[in-house]
Amino acid sequence: MSSSHSTSRRIQARLRRRPAGDQSGDTVWLFDLDNTLHDASHAIFPAINRLMTAYVARVLGCDDATASRVRVDYWQRYGATLLGMIRHHGVDPADFLRAAHEFPELADMVRVRRGLAAHLRRLPGRKIIVTNAPQAYARAVLDIAGISHCFERVIAIEQMWVHGHLRPKPDRRMLRRLLAQSGIAPHRAVLVEDTLSHLKRYAGTGIRTAWVTGYLRTIAPSRPHVVAAPEASGSRGDAAVRSTLDAEDRQHASHAAQEHSVTLVAAESQVPPAAGATGLSPQSQPENAPRVRARVPNRPAYVDIKVQSMHQLQQRLRRTGS
């Protein structure tokens, strides 16, 4: 094979890998995946919770009820069940992630809005996926959604190790390292997320934030759910819960309470409530707990852009010229 022909093939291969769409401007978009670019609340998040519970049950040799309690406890203590399983049971992260994201029917579970790829192509700037999901799952979802060609890279949880420790979102060290390694100044980056607590965590870092609300769900009824302290069980606990809910009905939920309710929508990507905060996560809910559209509060001060979809994001930028 001639040298010129070999060079031509290498150039063509690089062109094929170049992301599609408008790459102009200085902006670098860091896109979350689940519930940001597709509707994960519909089928994927409930399935992840079931698979994680089954995995914990196998490792601990316990029943599903005990495994579910352990899963929720680790999520609340460490921000992700995986981190607790690594720390206390020495599980292999790759094995855990594979088991928790094994979906033979994934193509039937992914839901995207029509025209998503076109809106992403029109959005000016570089685009990178940054997700707490594993690499194989993320790429499969992108392929099914027909948008993999829009992104130059996929940063998945396997790439989120910092100094020997797994540091998924919303860890600041991980994101600072990602930006430094990619030569991206923080003020050029825009983190696009459905998870409000992630955006809040990155406030003050110089990174701009965009909050996507179109796929958010809450556990029905559409308000924060209160859980009694572990010692408040039986009739005393039930009475405490009823009293709190009655008070909410009389006073209406405050802005902060509404904001908290919106964070209770994702699976393992969510940050657990702060100490002393009340609320049940989706991880602790029965599989048949009804979910309804979230009542989304006004844009918090640490969110630069609030939109429902990529179409709205692209239109917003086109109107402002930014």
UniProtKB/TrEMBL annotation:
Start-end of Basic residues biased regions: 7-18
GO molecular function annotations of the record: phosphoglycolate phosphatase activity
Stored InterPro entries: HAD-like_sf (IPR036412), HAD-SF_hydro_IA (IPR006439), HAD_sf (IPR023214), Pyr-5-nucltdase (IPR010237)
Disordered as annotated region, ranges: 1-23, 227-260, 273-301
Domain of life the protein comes from: Bacteria
EC code(s) of this entry: 3.1.3.18
Low complexity compositional bias, start-end: 288-301
UniProt keywords, alphabetically: Hydrolase
Name the UniProt record assigns to this protein: Phosphoglycolate phosphatase
Organism, as annotated: Cupriavidus pinatubonensis
